[in-house]
Amino acid sequence: MQCARGAVRPGYGGGMAAGTEATRDERAPMPDGRAARAASVEARRRAVRDALAEVDRELADLRGMREVLSDDDEHDPDGVSMSSEWSRLEGLRQARLAELAEVEAAAARIASGEDGICAVCGRPIAPERLEARPQATTCIDCAR
Ligand SMILES: [Zn+2]
Predict the structure, then answer these.
(1) Measured in angstroms, how far is the CA atom of residue 24 from the centroid of ligand 1?
(2) pLDDT digits (tens, 9 = 90+) for 49-96
(3) How far apart are CA 37 and CA 131, in angstroms?
(4) CA of 107 to the centre of ligand 1 (A)
């Protein structure tokens, strides 16, 4: 039966098959990719947590130093550099916290099967972007 079908339009049938194949590849996310994504997001989460702990340690050190020096005189040059260090660390800490929240949101999206889809426009996120930024939940266009 297959022979009879092929004999009617040999060229046409072949072209259709190839086209269908390509479409299916784009639409269905690979299950293997999902496991790899979960692992890469988990690795990023650990790295961000470590970085956050590091900043917290530095802030605690600085706080301890501040108490010892009782920085009530503003004309002390040490006091100035210390407060700029303080705001640098505070800024860093906020950035780490924000990144941790993003990573956790990405982990939740992987668990619910929404991973790899832009949270804003619903289109697929480019694999290169997910590789560079595992916690990305929007495509590059929506992130701009
Ligand atoms: Zn988008």
Answers:
(1) 21
(2) 999 999 999 999 998 887 777 655 555 556 668 889 999 999 999 999
(3) 9
(4) 18
For every residue of 41-108, DSSP letters joined together read HHHHHHHHHHHHHHHHHHHHHHHHHHHHHT---TT-HHHHHHHHHHHHHHHHHHHHHHHHHHHHHHHH
pLDDT at position 75, please?
53
Cα(73) to centroid of ligand 1, in Å?
51
The answer, yes or no, to whether residue 13 has pLDDT greater than 50, is: no
What token pair was written down for 63? Answer: 């706080």
Residue boundaries of the structural domains of the chain: 2-143
Angstrom distance (rounded) from CA 65 to CA 144: 41
User: Mean of the per-residue pLDDT values for the chain?
Assistant: 79
- CA of residue 128 to ligand 1 center, whole Å: 15
Domain 2-143 CATH class label? mainly alpha
Query: For position 99, what pLDDT does the model report?
Result: 94
Q: Which of 115, 105, 100, 118 is nearest to 35 (CA)?
A: 115
Please state whether the predicted TM-score (pTM) of the whole model is above 0.85. no
CA 1 centroid distance within chain: 51
